[in-house]
Amino acid sequence: MEPEHAAFEIKTEGERVFLRTMRDGVNPAAVLESLLQAGVTASYAQVEEILSLEPGPWRPIDRGEEDFRMEVRILADGLSAEARLVTGSGQSGQEEEREKRVRQILAEAGVTFGVLEEAVFALAREQVPLGTWTPVAVGIPPKDGVDARIEELVPDPGESRGENEGSVEKARVDPRERNLIRNVKKGEAIARKIPLIEGQEGKDVSGRGIPAKKAKDVRLVPGPNTELSEDGLMLSASAGGHLVRENGRFSVQRVFEVRENVDYGTGNLECEGGILVRGSVAEGFSLKAREDLEVHGIVEGATLSAGGRMILKSSVRGMGRGVLSCGGDLFVEYADQCRIRAGKDVRFGKALLHCDLEAEGSILADREDRGVIVGGVCKAGGTLACTTLGSEMGAKTIVQVGLSPKLLEKKGQLSRKKEELLEKEARIRKNISFLAKQAEQKGLSSSQELLARELIALSGRVREEIEKAESFLQEIEKAIQSAKNRGEVLVRGYCYPEVTVIIRGEALVVREVLEGVRFVYRDGMVRLLPLKD
Questions:
Q1: Phi-psi domain of 357 (left: phi exceeds 0; alpha: psi -120 through 50; beta: other)
Q2: Which parts of the chain have pLDDT scores under 50?
Q3: What is the DSSP string of 396-425?
Q4: How far is C-alpha 321 from the chain's CA centre?
Q5: Closest C-alpha among 134, 144, 141, 143 to residue 205
Q6: pLDDT at position 1, please?
Q7: What are phi and psi for residue 429, nearest 5 degrees?
Q8: Mind listing the pLDDT tens digit for each residue in 290-301?
Q9: What is the DSSP string of 282-316?
Q10: Which helix (H) or strand (E) is 194 found in, with range?
């Protein structure tokens, strides 16, 4: 591409100056710059007019001393303006006057805000090439408002987060770990509102305001079992359960309902509230409710746990690995080969077969005309009542009543711990005695003296633990004595041989078929009485 100056020529004849072009489209700024270098002042408009004519002929240029001229344009968004020099004064020493002139021209063009001082300085000193547009003012763009939003603080079931990554990995390995329930505890934060941020108005180069986009507000709407903070920014659970959000409103369901079966479609379930299963529970699955648990269908080889009541309206086939535990009353229609633990009473509809059962309260058949207990071990803190106890085939059946199973278990644990501590104390005293004799005969080395001090200190700590265990055992014995009149076994129908009845630690083994009897504790032994006497 040929240089721009090759597209035009300038010549002088005495006081006159001429210009001619060799082609169309010559840049006026390049011509004006060449004229300035030649010491010729010309207007931009005059040069543009000559360049618009047919190339070739020489055309005179008016050398009139034209004043400093500048053009200004405001861009479409109004946030910036540009200026260009049309003509220069060609004179030095008048920079301050030209700065005033630049500001005057800008004001006349409507540019009154955001003027760039460095641009004014450069234009006034003609440091910007003639005809070149340069930024001369910048406005302030508006800052749009930020809408308020609701941030959920409880992750969706299965959602991966820092402390839940292990659960997600576990679910990949075991498809039963589906984690479908969105659990929240009482008092736990559910969601919070992030307040809106108001927008800030902008200003264009003419000083006019530019409105910002208004932010939209949103309400944090509480639902059942939730409570909103006074400032309306934090929502918490007022009860434990399953968190639900519908139509923008949060609520906590106290009971999580499963309309079908608990299987691979649901996975294991754990809820801070209660659980209601309309269908059955498949083998190998588990349910855990902090409050009540109710199942309408069959339970097979599953693990069920409830902090409150447990109601099982159909049969439970434990298969030797089924576990039922609850903190309150338990009702089961039929249970076979299960491990059962209840914090209060156990009621059953048809039968308890070969179960390992412990109830802090009583074990009672739900109806007087039915209720069979065969095999296994049944322990109750209160009364055991059934229609049939044992079987004609002589299934070994053990029933124990009158004392809290937990209390007896605790007593056994403390007794074993006391024996271990007594043995430990005896060994320590033996070692201390040996060192004492050694000291009398030939003295002790520094290491032996240190050992002796450590053994004496240890002996004191062990003695404290023994005394603490003895104190707890005394409290348990008092509780046992206070329950001396509790507990009896009522059999409305038949009681068969190989049934062992234990009341307050005393046992009676049934050797023959009995009908309509009750077992009670009298005078330090288990006695057999008629059901009605």
A1: beta
A2: 1, 65-66, 160-164, 171
A3: -EEEEESS-HHHHHHHHHHHHHHHHHHHHH
A4: 33
A5: 141
A6: 42
A7: -65, -35
A8: 999 999 999 999
A9: -TT-EEEESS-EEE-S-EES-EEEESS-EEEEEEE
A10: strand 189-194
CB 349 within 8 A of CB 367: yes
Q: How far apart are CA 424 and CA 414, in angstroms?
A: 15
Q: What pLDDT, on a 0 to 100 scale, did the predictor assign at position 522?
A: 87
Q: In which order are the strands placed within the sheet that holds 221-222? A: 183-184, 241-246, 249-253, 221-222
- Going from the C-alpha of 348 to that of each of 16, 319, 324, 325, 405, the distances in angstroms are 125, 18, 13, 15, 19
Query: What are 415's two structure tokens?
Result: 């007794």
Rounded to whole angstroms, how far apart are CA atoms 405 and 339? 14
Indicate the SS3 state at residue 490: strand
Name the one residue in this structure whose structure tokens are 């839940």.
164
Residue-wise DSSP of 34-61: HHHHTT----HHHHHHHHTSPSSS-EEE
Q: How many other CB atoms are there within 10 angstroms of residue 170's CB atom?
A: 13
pTM above 0.85, yes or no: no
Query: Which 3 state secondary structure label does DSSP give 341?
Result: strand
Instruction: With CA atoms as reference, report the closest residue to 507 among 355, 425, 399, 430.
Output: 399
Query: What are the Cα distances from residue 330, in Å, to 274, 309, 320?
Result: 14, 6, 19
Radius of gyration of the chain (CA): 49
Residue type, 406: K
| Residue 312: per-residue pLDDT | 97
Rounded Cα distance, 213 and 22, in Å: 54
Token reading at 403:
């004392």
Distance between CA 341 and CA 343 in Å, rounded? 7
Reported as a single tens digit per residue, the pLDDT across 419-445 is 988 898 899 889 888 888 888 888 888
224, two tokens? 């059942």
What six digits make up the tokens of 533? Answer: 């006497």
Separation of alpha carbons 233 and 27, rounded Å: 64
Q: According to the model, what pLDDT value does residue 444 have?
A: 81
Q: Read off the amino acid at residue 246.
A: E
Q: Are strands 330-342 and 346-359 parallel, antiparallel or unpaired?
A: parallel
List, in sequence order, every residue forming a beta bridge with 115; answer none if it has no partner: 137
Both tokens of 149, joined, read 């939003």
Q: How far apart are CA 471 and CA 420, in angstroms?
A: 16
Place of tokens 């089961």: 332
Task: Report yes or no: 286 and 325 within 8 Å, Cβ to Cβ.
Answer: no
CB 158 within 8 A of CB 171: yes
DSSP class of 143: B
Q: How many CB atoms lie within 10 A of CB 521?
A: 22
Cα–Cα distance for residue pair 270/307, rounded to 1 Å: 12
How many C-beta neighbours within 10 Å does residue 287 have? 24
3-class SS of residue 478: helix
Q: Which two tokens stand for residue 302?
A: 């599953």
pLDDT attached to residue 397: 97
Given a contact cutoff of 8 angstroms between Cβ atoms, the answer to whether 501 and 507 are in contact is yes
- Residue type (1 letter), 44: Y
**Which tokens go with 397?**
């059946």
